[in-house]
């Protein structure tokens, strides 16, 4: 065998291995080869792990302001709708092979896509901070048991919370150390542990307070939550996952892995942990006679119900599985803003940014106020964005994007100086519409503003593209 032929065969044999280990930037299209290494079960595990987390428990506790029946109704209505849209965007990522923010280039322009990218970056860094803060609360309770330090909510608890935030940040760095490959491994292990411990937590909660007591409990009028407001909160919570979906579906080989698997995993993970959050918060209110959404975080509820250190470890674990997805999305989004930043560097930068942001609720306002304001912001910007993206791909472009053109200056997605005003104007109108409709009384008590504005934005975008022609 000649030296040249041996060299060629050697390069061919190493290409699949190199492709499977590569972390692709935002606009790089993942080829249908060994690089597509996430199976149906990997996607299922990823999205169960992403949704079965402490943030979902917390949002379930906030929903308890509707009483049990109303909280379950909102969960069964708002979230499946969001995850249908997630499956649609997942399919877009599967087809084009690029990240979610790269998929905004046809509908906003190559330069115009930087605006949703900045918002997406802040969103996922923010989500990482939310989950990290809740997990740090658990660590503060563990530190109280072991070292006697004040736990969250007690005077002098800043020290234990700071240590908890730093511990969680180290775990997050480990979870994204190999990019999507380490995330895949974390989620495989995490789904099994979450399943076992989540069932245990559900059983223990129901042992403290009977299910009939939970069903009959109602909050005081001053603490009740309007149905439409709850719809907006839940919709924003679930829609926030959509800008992360293509970061993973671009690595799948089959359409079902990109659509069906994440939709099933997300719905199962979210409903399960929202259910635990709902019943745990109501159980705590029944036992103590006090319902306060500010103390519906998993750690405080687990402590009140005496669930012990194992429950705290569950909360810490679920933060790691959820934030692996959050950080992956944030890092790859950063590469859509600048190709000079390599994917792995972007993941580390995003993680450090999230660490700094996590300290904010310790010094400014209550965590609940920060959390609800954050969700209002997400609902306002993400609903219109997703409506436009789905309309562009499935209706305007007839399910076809030219991924190589995502980088072409003066190419088909360059439009007017890199901006596509049809998308940007439709998005701006959607954001303004949400701002005014969010507090409209008839929507606050019915369906909320998020989904009506999502539909409105998609319709406006379609009309603007027709005019543009």
Describe the structure.
Helix content is 73%, strand content 0%. With 469 residues, it is mainly alpha-helical. The chain has a single domain (36-468), classed as Hydantoin permease (Orthogonal Bundle), CATH 1.10.4160.10.
What's the story with the biggest beta sheet? Answer: none
Assess the beta-strand content as a share of residues.
under 5%
Question: How would you sum up the global shape?
Answer: globular
Q: CATH superfamily name?
A: Hydantoin permease
Residue windows where pLDDT falls under 50 for at least 5 positions: 1-15
Please tally the helical runs, counting DSSP H or I stretches of 4 or more residues.
20
Number of strands: 0
How many angstroms does the end-to-end distance come to?
59 Å
Mean pLDDT: 85
Summarize this structure briefly.
This protein has 469 residues and is an all-alpha fold. The chain is 73% helix and 0% strand. The radius of gyration is 22 Å and the shape is globular.
